[in-house]
Amino acid sequence: MSDEKPAFDSDEVEDKINRKKITRHRLRSNGFSAATVRDNRTQINDCLATIYQDPGGRVPDMKKIAIKKTSPFGKILLFLCIVAGIMAALVWATFFLPKSGQDTSQLDLALNGPSTITLGAPGTFSITYSNNYPVALKNVSLNVYYPTGFSFETSSIAATNSGHTEWDLGDLAPGASGSVVISGETFGNNGEQKTWHAFLNYTPSNFNSELQKSVSLTTKVGESPLTLTVSGPDQIAVGSPANFTITVNNNGSWTSPVALLPVLPPNFALASSSPELDSNNQWSIPYSSDSSATSTTFTFSGQFTGIADQATPIQAMLLMPGVDGQTTEIANASVTPALTKSNVAFDLAINGSLADFSSSPGSSLAITLHIKNTGTSSISNVVPELILQAPSLNRQSILDWSNIQDKNNGNIIGQQLSDTLRQGTITWDKTLIPALVSLQPGDEVEIDVELPIKDNTAIDLSSISASTISATANLNYQDSKGTNQTLNANPITITINSDLQFSQHDASNGTEHSVGWTLENNFHDLKNISITATAFGDVDFSNQNSSVGTITYDTTKNQIIWNIPELPAGASTNKAGFQLTLKKNNPSQSTLLSAPLVTAEDTATGKTITETSTAISL
User: Fold this and answer.
1) CATH entry 2.60.40.1530 includes domain 104-223
2) How many CB atoms are closer than 10 A to CB 570?
3) CA gap 141, 131 in Å, rounded
């Protein structure tokens, strides 16, 4: 390939010179003579060709090359736009971007605390900060967002707001540092994660905008002095009674009152609970600073409606009361029984009642368990079980188990549940009741038991603090497929009220009757006691007296009324007396005084006691 440059027309070059205004006149004006210009024309043409030729050595058509002029006004406008853009960028950078060396990485911020927290135990969290900028930081402030369930107690620097979440730290010199230490208690469920957030706001002294740096810390509730369990049957027949038990254990280190809330599904109808739920449908547990290790049991019963073979959870929550009516959940538990169709009817009745009722010391409990196969196939190996939990003193139950009457001689096992509660369990099987070997469709079995409640001669009633008896019953059997099944009967809670005893006597001497009323009370304090009776015929009321309270006569209603504001348990025998004199004999009159009506309020149970005596005849 030849290295020679392609030839070009000198006239064409000269024509281009004229186009580019490179004239002989302009060359002469710059000190070049005409001869020099003429002699160097070839050199000029060579230079121009070199300038315009491409890398391959080709020379463009010189006649098509032209110079486009730019308007002076356009140049000025373009220049002004460039200057305005540069100024805007500088302003933006001044106000919104940190200068060199002013990024937030030059501020150290750390949040430290325990990774695992014991429920309710004091915990300490520290927030440290350090200024690594070469300039001072102005208006430094700290904001902290606590996790739900944290209860603030103290901080090393006083907060500037009532919620103890904001601190004004003033100015921070280059290289200076500081810290805020916060103490408090954390409440939540075992294993629940709790996250802290801290924000430090500041303005570098050579900067026009506020900057912010944040940090967070996640801790976990790892231990709890309170444990909660819910127990109940694995399977429950739709429409059949079901019993559940909630147990709260305190290892002794928890000293604050809590509330226990049963969380029941919409298809569960609550029938009864022991103790009774309050107006908020929960139980209160009054733990205090002198609480010791305890195990507290709560029971409730009801029945399910809905579709069989579905799982339905029964839950319980422990709540710690807070300010403004707020509560914090500190424990939860649940049990999930399966709902099935029932082929067996199983009922518990006491003193003819299927529901809760009241009794008193010295009375007897007539207990009946009724079992019936309502299905279309047989059941076998039927084992009914009756469980009675009652108040106790010195490990002796208020129930008189030594005088139980049970013709089937069920197996009895006693168990002391606490210092004040004792349990007795009676179990029957096919060896005691042959009919329990197998129940064909339509077959039924009844088991009757009579069990007395001790009176004051058998146990010191004034030393017993509890006042309820809980009765539950379970039925275990095998269905036609050989599968073990369990049914719960309706639970019954028996409230033991005062053993208030009223007696009356009459000493007559013709038309004059000296009447005496006597009250005795050994179990629970009473208040608002009233004994009322109506006198018949034309009589005079006189010589009234009473050892406690007041006795009066209402002439408009012919009523004798003995009112006693308070009557402590274990008080001595209380008496009242009066005289009724018949002023006119009426042969048709057979009754002098109606049967007295006795009413009193038991301060321990809150129940109203009502009983009647016998009338006084002529």
Assistant:
1) yes
2) 15
3) 13
Residue 478 CB contacts under 8 Å (≥ 6 apart), including other chains: 379, 380, 381, 484, 485
Amino acid of residue 379: I
Q: What are the beta bridge partners of residue 181? A: 126
Closest CA to 160 of 144, 178, 184, 148: 144
Nearest to 535 by CA among 501, 586, 477, 486: 586
pTM of the complete model beyond 0.70? no
- Per residue in 457-497, pLDDT (tens digit) is 999 998 898 899 999 999 999 999 998 888 888 889 999 99
**According to CATH, what is the number of the domain 344-496?**
2.60.40.10
How many whole angstroms separate alpha carbon 217 and alpha carbon 232?
40
C-beta of residue 297 within 8 angstroms of C-beta of residue 306: no
Condensed to tens digits (0 to 9), the pLDDT of residues 222-276 reads 778 888 999 998 888 776 778 899 999 998 888 889 999 999 988 888 888 999 8
Res 14 pLDDT > 60: no
Tokens of 536: 């018949």
**Spatial distance between the Cα atoms of 345 and 487, rounded to a whole number of angstroms:** 9
Determine which helix (DSSP H) or strand (DSSP E) holds 27, and give its type and residue range. Answer: helix 24-29
d(CA 602, CA 500) in angstroms, rounded, equals 10
The answer to whether 328 and 224 have CB atoms below 8 angstroms apart is no
Fold of 226-340: Immunoglobulin-like (2.60.40)
Give the residue extent of every domain in the chain.
10-64, 104-223, 226-340, 344-496, 501-617
Give the distance from CA 306 to its chain's centroid.
Answer: 27
Report pLDDT for 20: 44
CATH topology of domain 501-617: Immunoglobulin-like (2.60.40)
Cβ 197 vs Cβ 214: under 8 Å: yes
Q: What is the pLDDT of residues 129-145, one digit of tens each?
A: 999 999 999 999 999 99
DSSP assignment letter at 191: T
Beta strands in 438-491, from DSSP E residues, in sequence order:
438-439, 444-452, 468-478, 484-488
588: Cβ contacts below 8 Å, ≥ 6 apart: none
Number of Cβ within 10 Å of residue 148's Cβ equals: 13
Residue type, 319: L
Nearest to 157 by CA among 173, 179, 172, 176: 179
Q: Does residue 91 or residue 387 have the better pLDDT? A: 387
Residue 163 burial (CB count, 10 A):
9
**Helix/strand/coil for 434:** helix
Separation of CA 211 from chain center: 40
- Phi, psi torsion values for 74, nearest 5 degrees: -65, -40
CA–CA dist 248, 229 (Å, integer): 7
Q: Which helix (H) or strand (E) holds 11?
A: helix 10-19
State the Cα–Cα distance between residues 90 and 209, nearest whole angstrom. Answer: 15
Phi-psi region of 458 (alpha: psi -120 to 50; beta: other; left: phi over 0): alpha
Residues 6+ apart with CB under 8 A from 108: 128, 129, 130, 132, 177
Determine the 3-state secondary structure of 92 from DSSP.
helix
DSSP 42-69: HHHHHHHHHHH--TTSPPP-GGG---PP
Whether 226-340 and 501-617 share one fold: the answer is yes
Cis peptide bond upstream of 275, omega within 30: yes
